[in-house]
Design brief:
Blueprint (H helix, E strand, L loop, with lengths): L1 H17 L12 E6 L10 H19 L3 E3 L10 H10 L3 H10 L13 H18 L15 H16 L3 E11 L4 E2 L13 E11 L3 E6 L10 E4 L4 E7 L2 E6 H7 L7 E7 L7 E3 L6 E6 L12 E3 L5 H9 L10 E3 L6 H9 L4 H18 E3 L12 H4 L7 H14 L3 E7 L13 E12 L3 H13 L1 E3 L4 H10 L2 E3 L1 E2 L14 E2 L9 H12 L9 H9 L4 H8 L3 H14 L4 E5 L3 H15 L8 E5 L2 E3 L2 E2 L10 H8 L1 H10 L7 E3 L1 H19 L11 H22 L3 H25 L6 H15 L4 H10 L22 H21 L8 E6 L3 H12 L4 H8 L4 H16 L2 H9 L4 H16 L2 E6 L2 H7 L9 E4 L1
Parallel strand pairs: 1-2, 1-22, 7-12, 18-23, 22-23, 24-26, 27-28
Antiparallel strand pairs: 3-4, 3-17, 5-6, 5-11, 5-16, 7-13, 8-9, 8-10, 11-12, 14-15, 17-19, 20-21, 24-25, 27-29
């Protein structure tokens, strides 16, 4: 590890001195512009952060070797509340956070108190993260670095928001949002602990009237109200009687607090224990039937209103607990599912006998999903309805559930029988300050109106053109574009850019981070020419990014020389559009989809981004990293512990892109052992003097180019796991195989061949382990260029001897057949005799059987057996044609093979692999009679003595 880290430091310095990663426009080269989400500097990085960034770096390095002029820049995201919240926690003396900083991240004790200043914290962690990025070997053009509170960047965000507003995409409206009750600000994903996006769902309150007041039952399934036979409340919790919009309502104390953010002037009249409400009679407003209020501990008073309808026919919890209480359970069917009846909840409880709430939740999910997708309302529904509503509600009979839900909701709202409220569906979600988030109906708030149909269509058009890696994520983007609605785009608290036309608001973090990739293209030029905030006007950005306006007039107005304006415009046009955007999978429902929307809104189609790549998380020894498990490994510490290039391989390429990486000690060891083995082979290259060029050499060169072909294709599609599996693990295994082959021939390895294949390997591994590759390239191969700037090796088809590869696979198949026999052989084998057919007629028969493509009649008709023995032979050959794999079919169809010659050529190697003497002979009738054995093409008779 010391060696790996020392060479990493050495080559990072040399790359920096040579400005290897500083990318400038070059019209002679195709460009490749890639970015990774810029980080929040509100804590140090742990190993989980490294995956997305190394993945992006691996692709950038590969593209550079493929001849592209690559731009890979980086900035830092200061905007919003994450940094403010962390600084507040330090100021309040948050013991858990301070202990984490001190014990896990090893931050000096005298530094931590100073982090109560948000800017000090941001700058401290920015530098720490930057060091992490450099130490893990990211090839970043640091000239383009910026933060989102730089005045120059703020001018860019101001321009972006003017553009969106001019197109009607920013509106002032009233809308439900996630809300922090302490700081009184809207809360999105990056404002929450654990970066959880608050999911807002819509409930219908149905008013059940009683002598004590209205019980507002909250439900997601108002269509089941016809079958409500009771109400549930939690007898152990606190409830209130409150004045809500002039009505006396009974709901949980917590619900009253939460609803105060959605309904104005809620007044608490009386507090009451839930147990005091049990037994109260309340009227079902739709059926007119009086039902009883029952107590149940499963009622969550923090969700909805703390008052729940009991519908035993269609809610497993209701049927189970009503029965458990010993009540005479009244089951009123409302929804029928073909083949499953009309009391699905009752039936699944009776059938499955649930033991606990977890079992009931699974049954509930099944019932709700099944009834929504396949259910229809009962045909005589009006028999359950109040006389005065029969005419209006008769039309619900026989309707499918989704339509019935919509109609009954509208009926309840229009007739004053209830109202809608909003709830955090994935609760509890906590603001970074530690307060549980509620839903607030926000009035006069600025929103990005992602609900607009025309904008959604633009976003879908852009998505249809994007490369999405992995491809299965495309459906998640389609789903997000569909459900996305208005999103609050400004806060009254936090760092960032003021909203241009209403400066008491600050543009929030997921709204100023959607098209910032465009800023990278000229950020270094803004710094180089010392352009000021006042010069970066709306007209400046219009010209540079959209080509609008007269450059002479803009130059005169801003004082920026016209040649500089044109230089900036040209640089932007050289790099844009963005070729690949890397991020974590958790950002698909927000940032990455906003990235699509905003690019579609602002830029012409020829400047729309081309690709998005997302990856899963990093687990540690199979578990999610968390403070409570004390299993967080700071990235910089991990690099010291395990070695830079080993960490790069482990984080980027030991799982498919969409899956989680399970980082473990055993994984690190496996990678390290393979890397060390090949490194040692490089060091000992001069010891291999043999120049024999026989089957082993031909096979190794063919295999290497075959691996190169697979790795190249995998890298192009960012299938990094496949690439490393081939380039590291399979190649390492092939080297072992080669050394065994030459040992079987009692000779040394061919040094020239080894150097050729190892040099190809070195270039293949360079994007993953650039430091080790550079060290070998210079110190062992004595090259004076940088390998990171070398060309990717070309797949020379002429170097791939297909026949050699197929003959090897044939030999492996024979070895497997022998081993399967040895597994059941009793005794110690002295010799293995292989009797192979040496008659081209049998090969021709097998070719014809393969050509028959599984149609036995076609094969038999073309050969017309003269007797039963011939028919049996043809049957066996036809059956073999169905069993052999594609490689063996290729061997038979493409080459005139002589099996005896192949086996004799490889018999020494077979003897070494099996540890038994091997004899190769021709099959004959005498052998058939002697051993009572058959031989077929590619299937010699195997005799073990």
């Amino acid at each position: 590890m010391d060696f790996l880290n020392n060479i990493a430091e050495k080559w990072q310095k040399k790359w920096e001195e040579a400005k290897v990663y500083e990318a400038n426009p070059d019209p002679k080269k195709p460009k490749f512009f890639t970015t990774v989400a810029f980080p929040y500097p509100n804590s140090p990085w742990h190993i989980g952060h490294g995956r997305t960034y190394v993945t992006g770096d691996v692709l950038a390095r590969f593209k550079r070797m493929r001849g592209y002029n690559v731009l890979f820049p980086m900035g830092f995201h200061y905007t919003g509340t994450p940094i403010m919240a962390m600084a507040d926690a330090i100021a309040k003396g948050d013991k858990e956070l301070i202990d984490t900083f001190k014990e896990i991240y090893e931050i000096p004790a005298d530094i931590i108190p100073r982090m109560s200043d948000p800017l000090y914290m941001a700058n401290y962690f920015k530098e720490d993260i930057k060091r992490s990025m450099k130490e893990i070997g990211l090839g970043i053009d640091w000239r383009r670095e910026f933060t989102t509170i730089d005045p120059e960047f703020s001018s860019f965000v101001t321009w972006q928001f003017h553009k969106l507003q001019s197109k009607g995409y920013i509106v002032k409206d009233t809308h439900p949002v996630g809300w922090c009750p302490i700081h009184h600000i809207p809360v999105g994903m990056h404002d929450t602990k654990g970066d959880v996006e608050p999911e807002i769902g819509e409930f219908v309150l149905i008013y059940f009237k009683s002598d004590k007041g209205i019980f507002p039952a909250a439900t997601l399934r108002p269509e089941t109200v016809f079958g409500a036979t009771g109400l549930w409340i939690n007898p152990n919790e606190n409830y209130v009687i409150a004045n809500v919009l002039g009505n006396r309502m009974i709901l949980s104390e917590r619900a009253a607090f939460k609803l105060s953010f959605q309904i104005d002037n809620i007044e608490i009249i009386e507090k009451i224990k839930g147990s005091k409400l049990v037994g109260t009679k309340a009227e079902n407003p739709i059926t007119g039937k009086f039902v009883e209020v029952n107590g149940a501990e499963f009622v969550d008073v923090n969700f909805g209103t703390g008052v729940v309808m009991s519908v035993p026919a269609h809610a497993p919890f209701d049927y189970y607990y009503a029965k458990k209480m010993g009540k005479n359970v009244e089951v009123i069917p409302v929804i029928n599912v073909e083949g499953l009846g009309n009391t699905l909840a009752k039936d699944v409880v009776e059938k499955n006998n649930p033991k606990n709430n977890e079992d009931l939740e699974k049954l509930t999910e099944y019932v709700y999903r099944t009834e929504y997708n396949k259910g229809v309302m009962r045909s005589d529904l009006e028999v359950l309805v109040k006389e005065e509503f029969k005419e209006d509600l008769r039309k619900l009979s026989g309707l499918q559930v989704p339509k019935a839900r919509e109609m009954i909701t509208n009926f309840i709202l229009n007739n004053g029988l209830g109202r809608k409220i909003f709830e955090i569906m994935n609760r509890p979600v906590y603001c970074r300050c530690g307060t549980e988030i509620v839903v607030k109906i926000l009035k006069d708030q600025w929103f990005l109106d992602y609900s607009r149909t025309d904008w959604k269509e633009l976003a879908r058009k852009l998505l249809s053109r994007l490369i999405i890696i992995p491809s299965e994520i495309r459906k998640d983007f389609e789903f997000t574009i569909g459900w996305l609605e208005k999103r609050a785009c400004a806060r009254t608290r936090g760092l960032g850019t003021p909203l241009p036309w209403d400066k008491k608001w600050i543009i929030e973090s997921l709204s100023d981070s959607t098209i910032y990739m465009a800023y990278y293209t000229i950020s270094h030029k803004i710094r180089q020419y010392k352009l000021t905030f006042s010069q970066l006007t709306l007209e400046f950005w219009d010209y540079v990014l959209l080509g609008l306006g007269n450059p002479e007039e803009i130059s005169e107005k801003t004082g920026i020389p016209i040649n500089i304006l044109k230089e900036l415009r040209d640089e932007f046009l050289y790099w844009y559009p963005l070729d690949m955007r890397h991020s974590g999978r958790d950002l698909v429902p927000n940032h990455l989809t906003f990235f699509i929307f905003n690019h579609a809104a602002i830029f012409p189609e020829n400047l729309w981004p081309k690709g998005i790549a997302v990856n899963g998380l990093v687990l540690y020894e199979g578990k999610k990293m968390s403070k409570s498990l004390r299993n967080i490994i700071p990235l910089r510490k991990g690099l010291r512990m395990y070695g830079v290039d080993i960490m790069r391989i482990a984080l980027s390429s030991t799982a498919d892109m969409g899956s989680d990486v399970n980082f473990s000690e055993s994984l690190v060891r496996t990678i390290g052992e393979n890397i060390r083995k090949i490194y040692e082979l490089f060091k000992n290259l001069d010891n291999y003097k043999d120049t024999t060029y026989a089957f082993p050499e031909k096979w190794l060169i063919s295999r290497t180019y075959e691996i190169l072909d697979k790795v190249t294709k995998s890298m192009e599609s960012l299938e990094l796991r496949n690439a490393v599996n081939e380039a590291l693990f399979i190649f390492s295994s092939d080297l072992d195989e080669y050394f065994n082959m030459v040992a079987a021939e009692n000779r040394n390895a061919n040094g020239n061949v080894l150097k050729e294949v190892l040099t190809i390997w070195l270039k293949m591994i360079t994007p993953f382990a650039p430091h080790l590759a550079e060290e070998i390239w210079h110190e062992i191969l004595y090259q004076d260029t940088f390998i990171v700037n070398e060309s990717w090796p070309e797949v020379e088809k002429s170097k791939v001897d297909e026949l050699i590869l197929l003959e090897y696979k044939y030999m492996k198949k024979i070895i497997e057949d022998i081993r399967s026999i040895l597994n059941i052989y009793r005794g110690t084998p002295k010799v293995i005799k292989l009797y192979s057919l040496n008659d081209s007629r049998y090969v021709e028969l097998l070719r014809d059987a393969i050509k028959a493509n599984g149609q036995m009649k076609v094969f038999m008709d073309s050969h017309k057996p003269r007797n039963k023995e011939e028919a049996r032979l043809l049957q066996r050959i036809f059956n073999e044609s169905l069993e052999i794999d594609d490689d063996m079919k290729k061997l038979v169809m493409n080459y005139n093979i002589n099996e005896i010659n192949i086996l004799k050529q490889l018999s020494l190697y077979m003897r070494k692999k099996l540890g038994v003497d091997i004899q190769i002979n021709e099959f004959s009738e005498e052998i058939k009679k002697l051993y009572n054995k058959e031989a077929l093409p590619l299937r010699p008779a195997i005799i073990i003595e």
